[in-house]
Fold (2Fe-2S)-binding protein.
Amino acid sequence: MPKITFIEDDGTEHAVEAGADASVMQAAMDNLVPGIVAECGGYANCATCHVYIDPAWADKLPAPEEAEEVMIEAAFDVRPTSRLSCQVQVTEDTDGLIVRLPASQTGA
């Protein structure tokens, strides 16, 4: 199973295993990673699963689609590697993915 490391704004790490058919958001939810609210359930209709993809991984993932880009603009503290975790699919190629959680997501 691919492993994903979520890093909170305060540096707390959560290393989880995820099914290859899950989204990064679902992997976080299944493993009780704080800061991923996912109010819309994974349909890119909110930005409550906003994350920063580690720069070493940003170019290895498919580019966001237009709907995701529009919704990311509604998030707080948007950065070049901002993504909606519900739109990032876990695959065997994402084994080792590092995702950082914005302070606005974790209440820090």
In short: Residues 3-100 form a domain with the Ubiquitin-like (UB roll) fold (CATH 3.10.20.30). The chain has a mean pLDDT of 93. The first strand starts at residue 3 and ends at 7. The helical segments are 24-30, 55-58, 66-72, 103-106.
